[in-house]
């Protein structure tokens, strides 16, 4: 029996998230179907984490056990020929039998993209949230810094969260602004990329952080309010949940062994 680890990238627009759901049409469903079509085996893959419906991944990791002797260098092309065009396997390696793609991950990074120009980008509209009004980006940056640290993030978790423990550590959080697509017009502010890195994230956590930052950018809340929101440990204390299309699982860091 072999344990194979693969790196995946996908546009999640058409899917109900990564993990298997009763209604089907998830990334996991398509991967397991492709593996079964290739090897004849009915396998269950293990992902590094879940992504919600409509959320994308630049770098998602999964592993699974197989008796297939297909050479490792042939797996990517073989699976991609059996997957939809918006799901692509970009790397495959054989790992030790005790490797677990979720438990071995020590840092995850998400990126949320807000188009703050006056008009949407027709070519990237599936990967961005277009904001209707100007934002105070400096205030958003100030607010984001308050999330760095180890806290109980109950205020920033979905009310449907089934986790017993809502304590998580945010290692880094920063904003980058790409103005390359701005017109020579005072209304265009560029494309805002919000990055959040940590040891793990609760359901909707990054999207609620972004929804709160957008309210700060709109002047509806103050950046200095964030510590009180966290301390409240109450979902109603924080801002709304930002739409899913702007969120992407950006990167994963694993232990060297």
Automatic annotation (TrEMBL):
<dbReference type="InterPro" id="IPR020094">
    <property type="entry name" value="TruA/RsuA/RluB/E/F_N"/>
</dbReference>
<feature type="binding site">
    <location>
        <position position="110"/>
    </location>
    <ligand>
        <name>substrate</name>
    </ligand>
</feature>
<dbReference type="GO" id="GO:0160147">
    <property type="term" value="F:tRNA pseudouridine(38-40) synthase activity"/>
</dbReference>
<protein>
    <recommendedName>
        <fullName>tRNA pseudouridine synthase A</fullName>
        <ecNumber>5.4.99.12</ecNumber>
    </recommendedName>
</protein>
<dbReference type="InterPro" id="IPR020095">
    <property type="entry name" value="PsdUridine_synth_TruA_C"/>
</dbReference>
<dbReference type="InterPro" id="IPR020097">
    <property type="entry name" value="PsdUridine_synth_TruA_a/b_dom"/>
</dbReference>
<feature type="domain" description="Pseudouridine synthase I TruA alpha/beta">
    <location>
        <begin position="9"/>
        <end position="103"/>
    </location>
</feature>
<dbReference type="Pfam" id="PF01416">
    <property type="entry name" value="PseudoU_synth_1"/>
</dbReference>
<dbReference type="InterPro" id="IPR020103">
    <property type="entry name" value="PsdUridine_synth_cat_dom_sf"/>
</dbReference>
<dbReference type="InterPro" id="IPR001406">
    <property type="entry name" value="PsdUridine_synth_TruA"/>
</dbReference>
<dbReference type="GO" id="GO:0031119">
    <property type="term" value="P:tRNA pseudouridine synthesis"/>
</dbReference>
<feature type="active site" description="Nucleophile">
    <location>
        <position position="52"/>
    </location>
</feature>
<keyword id="KW-0819">tRNA processing</keyword>
<comment type="subunit">
    <text>Homodimer.</text>
</comment>
<keyword id="KW-0413">Isomerase</keyword>
<feature type="domain" description="Pseudouridine synthase I TruA alpha/beta">
    <location>
        <begin position="145"/>
        <end position="254"/>
    </location>
</feature>
<comment type="function">
    <text>Formation of pseudouridine at positions 38, 39 and 40 in the anticodon stem and loop of transfer RNAs.</text>
</comment>
<dbReference type="GO" id="GO:0003723">
    <property type="term" value="F:RNA binding"/>
</dbReference>
<comment type="similarity">
    <text>Belongs to the tRNA pseudouridine synthase TruA family.</text>
</comment>
């Amino acid at each position: 029996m072999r344990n194979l680890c693969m790196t995946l990238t996908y546009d999640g627009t058409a899917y109900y998230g990564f993990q298997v759901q009763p209604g089907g049409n998830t990334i996991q469903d398509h991967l397991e179907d492709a593996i079964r079509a290739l090897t004849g085996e009915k396998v269950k893959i293990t992902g590094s984490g879940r992504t919600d419906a409509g959320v994308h991944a630049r770098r998602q990791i999964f592993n699974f056990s197989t008796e297939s002797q297909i050479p490792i260098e042939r797996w990517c092309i073989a699976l991609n020929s059996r997957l939809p065009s918006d799901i692509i396997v970009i790397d495959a390696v054989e790992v030790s039998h005790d490797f677990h793609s979720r438990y071995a991950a020590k840092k995850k990074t998400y990126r949320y993209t807000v188009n703050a120009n006056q008009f949407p980008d027709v070519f990237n509209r599936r990967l961005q949230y277009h904001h209707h009004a100007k934002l105070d980006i400096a205030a958003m940056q100030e607010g984001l810094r308050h999330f760095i640290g180890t806290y109980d993030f109950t205020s920033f978790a979905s009310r449907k969260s089934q986790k017993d423990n809502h304590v998580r550590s945010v290692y880094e959080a920063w904003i980058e602004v790409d103005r390359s697509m701005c017109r020579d017009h005072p209304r265009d502010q560029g494309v805002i990329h919000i990055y959040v890195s940590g040891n793990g994230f609760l359901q909707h956590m990054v999207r609620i952080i972004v929804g709160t930052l957008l309210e700060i950018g709109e002047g509806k809340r103050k950046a200095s309010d964030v510590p009180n929101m966290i301390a409240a440990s109450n979902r109603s204390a924080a801002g709304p949940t930002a739409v899913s299309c702007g969120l992407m699982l950006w990167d994963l860091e694993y232990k060297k062994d």
